[in-house]
Amino acid sequence: MYVNIFQHIIRFFVLVVVQIYVLNNILFLNIINPYIYIYFILLLPFETPNFILIILSFILGFTVDLFTCSYAIHAFATTFIGYIRPFVLKLYSPFDGYDKNTKPTIEFYDIYWWLKYAFTITFIHHSILFLLETFHLHNLFHTTVKALISTILTVILITLLQYFFHKSKSKK
Amino acid sequence: MRTILQFIYKQHNLILFLLIEIFCLAITIKNNDYQNAVGFSIIEEFSGSIHKIYHSVYRFINTVDENKKLAHENAFLKAKLLNIANINENNIIYKDTYDLIPTNIVFANVFSSNNYIIINKGKNDSIEADMGVICPTGVVGIVKNVSPNFATVIPIINVNAHISARIKTNQYFGTTNWDGKDFKYINLADIPYHVKLKKGDTVITSGFSTIFPEGIEIGIIENFDFNEGNDFYNIVVRLSTEFNKINHVYVVRHKKKNEFKQIENEIKNVR
Q: CB-CB: which of B28, B43, B50 is closest to A132?
């Protein structure tokens, strides 16, 4: 249990540092900017109480905001996905619900489930983020395309992370 | 009363969620008040010191490249100095009014629409808000917030940044604005369409304020057109500053800023 909490804390800091110093400095084809730090929220255990989920999401977003001087747009987007995560989980829940002692990873659930889950949450997050960033609607098409392509890249990156850190464990 | 409490208890997640979202929106929309409200300079000092650690590693890796660039700049400046001695005394006014404070960029975010840059000098090095920032190749931006050892710069590639610019060949002036898409180009507005333009004309700062000296290069005209029924051109300017590469910059300090401000205020009072 304590090891788990420790893992989550480490993951939090590693993701934030990678996001700020590596990914924010990469802009593929002028429009694609992946935000992988939300991987932290995706991996929180199923049994996390909702209000803790919301508060942790807010803290994650606000930390990123502090280091990118973006006021509170990341905090807004992450809090939103923190709030809707339980609903998304319910929507995609397997026939007999989620087992206790399992985590929301491809280790316990198959890749299709993971892709559906990750894509939905990432797309909502990116859309809100890019909309807030431009803060007006007249570039709506550009913003939507940017959100969609960035979402695809983010999902690919976090799925690769899953294979690196979770699939290998299950083979042992 | 009881039902209200029960409702709050039942919906505590929704209420918490809504409160946080309202808080975030308030900060984002009223971004200026926030900086005063939560002591922005404290946060800036903290994040600045962490960015500094990262930057020291980054700079170490890039030393060779940077030295080359600085050597080039030195050569360029020396050449300029020799020229000034040859021409006339008018050019020396420039030297008297402006101070350049050399600094390094510790963090630059140039890929989103609200870009900003953090430099490693602040109030202790007599840097104040609303000072211009330039680099060897051109204009960078304007200082916005200052903490004791760091300062935030709003670059010209920020959707909220507008600076006064002039076309070098025909002296017409307009305002720059950025559409938030590509960090290599900005737009120049307010140039009336009877003006004759050429692709490749240089765009420079107009010098209409104490922020930038006159004649600092902004970029060159890449493309222009005008819509029917509109009196002004849409001009696309290719920036001379490469924002994804900048490192050494200079903060421009106007020595007679207070005098200038005083005159400005007097004009306002007369009205």
A: B28
In angstroms, the CA A63 to CA B65 distance is: 33
Shortest distance between the Cα of B80 and any Cα of chain A, in A, equals 35
Phi and psi, residue A105, nearest 5°:
-135, 170
Nearest to A76 among B12, B25, B181 (CB): B25
Q: Which among B23, B109, B152 is the nearest to A24, CB-wise?
A: B109
Indicate if ipTM > 0.85.
Answer: no
- Measured from the Cβ of residue B124, the count of other Cβ atoms closer than 10 Å reads 11
Location of structure tokens 């007999």: A96
Most distant pair of Cα atoms in chain A: their distance? 52
Tokens of A14: 């590693």
Name, in order, each residue with C-beta under 8 angstroms of A34's C-beta and a sequence gap of 6 or more.
A23, A150, A153, A154, A157
Separation between Cα atoms, residue A122 and residue A91, nearest integer Å: 15
The string of pLDDT tens digits covering residues A69-121 is: 777 889 999 999 999 998 998 888 877 777 777 778 787 888 888 898 999 99
d(C-alpha B165, C-alpha A24), whole Å: 30
Question: Residue A119, SS3?
Answer: helix
pTM metric for this prediction: 0.68
Chain position carrying tokens 């809100």 = A128
Of residues B102, B137, B136, the one with CA closest to residue B120:
B102
Of B145, B107, B2, the residue nearest A20 (C-alpha): B107
Interchain contact, A51 vs B50, CB within 8 Å: no
**CA distance to A18, A132, B112, per residue, from A151 (Å):** 17, 16, 16
Residues B207 and B215: beta-carbon distance below 8 Å: yes
In 3-state terms chain A splits into helix, strand, coil percentages (rounded to 5) of 70, 0, 25
Question: A2-165 — its CATH code?
Answer: 1.10.1760
Helices (H) and strands (E) in chain A, counts: 7, 0
